[in-house]
Amino acid sequence: MDKEMKEKKGFDPALRRFRAIFYTATIISLICCFIPVPGYSQPDRADELIQKLKNKDSDVRENAAIALVKIGTPAVEPLITALKDEDRIVRYSAARALGEIKDTRAIEPLISVLKDENSNVRWNVARALGMIEDTRVVEPLLAALKDEDWNVRMNAAKALGEIGTSAVEPLIAALKDKDSVVRSGATCALGEIKDARAIEPLISALKDEDSGVRRYATEALVNIGTSAIKPLIAALKDEYPDIQIGAVSALGKIGTSAVKPLIAALKDEDSNVRRNAAFALGKIKDARAVEPLIAALKDKDSDVQHYAARALGEIKDTRAIEPLISVLKDKKTHWSNGMQQRHWVR
Known about the structure:
Elements: H1 2-8, H2 13-32, H3 42-52, H4 58-71, H5 76-82, H6 88-101, H7 107-113, H8 119-132, H9 138-144, H10 150-163, H11 168-174, H12 180-193, H13 199-205, H14 211-224, H15 229-235, H16 241-254, H17 259-265, H18 271-284, H19 290-296, H20 302-315, H21 321-329, H22 336-339
């Protein structure tokens, strides 16, 4: 009876012995990936693991790639050789592992594979080069911004951003490239690096003929943050309307840290600056701007008055109700009729 119960509960001794042997063998094989065995070098193990990158089982490939990264520098040469393997999975897995290892010996071989026929290989190479973070990869990555594949371009831009301050000057130069895709990638990378040297060039990029470049330049300035506020305030009076619009958008997205400089800008001698400052304050919707905006309702420039009223409507502070009603009653305010068609304070 006891024997029958054990069999029903899965206590078959033969099965238990098989499981024990299987688990032991698995553990030993994993340990062998990381512990040197006499007469069996790490490059040899690297070669063996590279062959496993061809396995149809994705788990086997993933574990082999992890093991190659764990081996580290002894695996670099075999991985460099694997970049030329006929199997695309081996090539991009090798690129990924080389990026994780971060050995500079891999730079030139990886650069040569940036032109691989397979886009998955190319974007993994771009990412790997960014992880190594060496100035030699800047120019090849800039060239990769022109790749026909969107994933390659995106990873090249991210890689340039990861390289950091050493990439700033080449990226600034790339803002003038004839290809809008390169200019867009450069603005994205500069936004990731957040170096103050890029502020003025990015502000100039706000008038780029390509709308995508203008949008990315705005986002880059937002990423740079508070150090961009003063130049952006100055840009509110730029002769180019696109720069004014981009500066307003960036200041609005930077948010509360831009409120005080924008309030001060409501008193600027240039009416364009006052108007744009009022518009940006409406985007930020900070209550500190309410009283200064109420005062701006009496600005000598009717456009400034108009944008101050719109900003107060966006902020929705009850302190603005009476001043706005007074504006509505003012027959001399030429835009008050249009304002009556809107619910400024809800």
